[in-house]
Write a structure and sequence with these properties.
With about 450 residues, the chain is an alpha+beta fold. The protein contains 17 helices and 14 strands. α6 packs parallel to α10, α6 packs antiparallel against α11 and α10 runs antiparallel to α11.
């Protein structure tokens, strides 16, 4: 008898399971509840509502939340929100927004070129190699990471939302993504064939140039063509009129935001055996701007992770962060808390895994980026955190969420911190040459919810 036939489910096993189920006094009660209400509603613990009251000892006033609508631009919204908080304070512009469509355009354009380069880099590998399969599964998508937005801003600048407002395809990106990915896969066929045929570098460059021209045209049709020069006209909170003429996207960024993006670095908490703390990491085939800023993470302990976020908040600056938002969270109430649902008690089974186990076994990774705008410190220790989301005002408390400290420990993976808050030891660690991780490493996940 083979090993697989020994492991086949027998009728005796099923009979035993049926008997065990029948012996449970609460089985039918739970069955009736869960079949009608589902696992989440039945296991919801409403004590969490009280624990997650949205009151914080440090609470930054950051105005109304934005709305990414039906697109995966959370990382972009979150990053631009941290910048607009700064801009709003300096220039008295409550509820002002930077153009997420502008950075969306250039990100997709650059990602297309990045894809072409990766196709050429792997053109000597068979189609069923893991790297080629990884590339073709998703040639490009809406998601991204902090360093990728920095690369876009450093090259293209930013503009006010009034200069490049939302379009149908920026707010509802499925059609654009489907069309662009179809084109990129078709272009991959051509590029791989050119390499196989021994085409010259000049011929390959010419084909790639034509492809990029078509990508640019597609993006102009769907997102609108980005402005190269514009006037910025506005009234501040004191009703004073302002007109700033003949700006470029880069001069606008320099004047109205003015951050040196090199000061802001990615800090992660990835407690897996392959990533020692106080070391830096990058991810193969992860990025957007060729020749631009590369993704780089400094892995630290969870205690250092939290203390860095607290230092930046205490200094009046919000914190971009990436997390696995779908885990133990109530979207409508805006609560992220390990006690939001008690599935273990409801189902009488242990579903507990460590943070490292979830990362290693594909149970969790970064799916969403938001902004921490407050924290509740009790006896100097954080108990809960205020979060600015980008899902509009109809969820949470006018779009703001509450995240318990224990939830942060388990499901937060990345924050962006000004280097000035790092200890000397961490500054030295951050300056190290990064270890290159595989393209499918969970720390290469793109925030896209």
């Amino acid at each position: 008898m083979t090993q697989s036939s020994k492991a086949a489910i027998s009728s005796d096993q099923i009979a035993r399971y049926q008997a065990q189920f029948a012996e449970r006094k609460d089985a039918k009660v739970i069955e009736r509840a869960v079949t009608h209400q589902g696992i989440l509603a039945t296991s919801a613990d409403y004590a969490s509502d009280t624990d997650m009251t949205p009151v914080f000892s440090i609470d930054l006033d950051t105005g109304k939340v934005a709305n990414q609508k039906q697109s995966g631009r959370c990382w972009m919204f979150a990053a631009l929100n941290t910048m607009r908080h700064h801009l709003a304070d300096l220039f008295k512009l409550t509820d002002f927004e930077l153009s997420q469509n502008y950075t969306f355009f250039w990100d997709k354009f650059e990602k297309s070129n990045y894809f072409y380069q990766n196709v050429l880099n792997t053109a000597d590998q068979p189609l069923d190699s893991r790297k080629v399969a990884f590339l073709m599964a998703t040639p490009q998508q809406d998601g991204g990471q902090w360093d990728m937005l920095c690369a876009i801003i450093e090259k293209y600048g930013i503009v006010p939302k009034s200069v490049m407002p939302e379009t149908y395809s920026s707010s509802k990106s499925n059609e654009l993504n489907g069309t662009l990915n179809k084109k990129l896969r078709k272009d991959a066929v051509t590029l791989r064939q050119l390499v196989a045929d021994g085409a010259s570098e000049a011929d390959i460059a010419s084909a790639r140039d034509r492809m990029l021209g078509e990508v640019y045209r597609l993006l102009c049709y769907t997102l609108g063509e980005p402005a190269q020069q514009f006037d910025f006209e506005y009234r501040d909170d004191d009703k004073n009129y302002h007109l700033d003429q003949n700006l470029t996207p880069k001069s606008f960024y320099d004047k109205y935001v003015g951050w040196d993006l090199n000061d802001y670095v990615s800090i992660i908490n990835g407690p897996t055996a392959d990533k020692p703390y106080n070391k830096t990491y990058t991810v193969e085939m992860l990025g957007n701007v060729l020749g631009g800023r590369e993704v780089k993470h400094l892995n630290v302990t969870i205690d250092d992770f939290k203390q860095l976020a607290i230092k930046q908040l205490q200094d009046g600056q919000s914190v971009w962060f990436g997390c696995d938002v779908g885990q133990s969270s109530d979207r409508q109430k805006g609560i992220m808390d390990l006690n939001a649902y008690n599935k273990n008690a409801l189902l009488d089974m242990d579903l507990t895994m460590t943070k490292a186990e979830r990362l290693d076994y594909g149970e969790s990774l970064m799916t969403h980026a938001m902004v921490i705008t407050g924290v509740d410190l009790v006896d100097g220790q954080p108990t809960k955190w205020k979060v600015e989301n980008s899902w509009g005002e109809k969820v949470g408390t006018k779009g703001y969420f509450v995240m318990s400290d224990r939830w942060l420990e388990e499901y937060c993976y990345q924050i962006v911190i000004n280097k000035k808050y790092l200890s000397d030891e961490l500054k030295q660690a951050q300056a190290q040459t990064p270890t290159v991780l595989a393209p499918w490493d969970p720390m290469g996940a793109l925030a896209s919810h």
